[in-house]
Amino acid sequence: MTWSIVAREPETGHLAIAVATRFFAVGSLVPHIRGGIGAVATQAFVSPLYGVDGVAMLAAGQTPDEIIKALTMRDEGREQRQLHLIDAKGNNAAFTGAKCIDWAGHLIDDNVSVAGNMLAGPQVIAETLSTFQKTTGKPLAERLLEAMRAGEDAGGDKRGRQSAALVIHRTEDYPWLNIRVDDSADPLTELERLYAVAQERYLHVAETMPTRSNPSGMIDRRDIDEKIAALEAARQAEGRPSASYATPLKAS
Questions:
Q1: Cβ(142)–Cβ(132) under 8 Å?
Q2: 62, 113, 131, 151: which has the fewest Cβ within 10 Å?
């Protein structure tokens, strides 16, 4: 199942994974990230241990190539599995087992890799990678969503569509953004909607959260509240509906 993209933004060091598949709740199993350490996507006949242990091994200083060798050597099911990962410096590696269901394979370039199995063909990961590379300069989330959309338009998972996820970590162990669609006939479109919802309020609040370098975060929330209010007022003035399905805010 699945195709995914694992990326590092070289200008910031931010790490991200986007994934889509014809399988339930792919975001619960495939992406594993730790800010400032690395990102691992484990898929096909998925072993979550590849993700959990892979991130721990990155934190311990092992290279992506060393991690793939260690994880696959101990696993008799390795030929049915797929794995790709990147470290905080942009070093990356990938593995596609010989028994992964066609079409299966991976591509690696500077600060990014794309891998997939049960795909319509090699054009899925080729278009995913090409689109990501062509969108340099845009926000990382948008680049990933556009890349996954290009892969879907190229055929995607040959069985169909069901779930998708997008996870981005900045400097912390917790994600800056983690959105998932677990069961949908059009998960990438729903993921795009969730990103639009996040832009209305959530991502602005995310800027206030405590970090290791600033354990208090932003204590005075007036600036961020004013920014959110201004964005909301502009949206209403332009007659644009909210992307959110939430009920209207009640007066306090």
A1: no
A2: 62
Ramachandran class of 239: left when φ > 0, alpha when ψ lies in -120 to 50, beta otherwise: left
Q: Enumerate residues 6+ apart whose C-beta is below 8 A from 22.
A: 1, 118, 157, 159, 160, 161, 162
pLDDT digits (tens, 9 = 90+) for 20-69: 999 999 999 999 999 999 999 999 999 999 999 999 999 999 999 999 99
Whether the predicted model's global pTM rises above the 0.85 cut: yes
First to last CA, the chain: 47
Domain count, the chain: 2
**Preceding amide of 176 cis, omega within 30:** no
How many CA atoms within 13 Å lie on the side-chain side of 209?
16
Domain assignment of residue 55, given as a range = 3-187
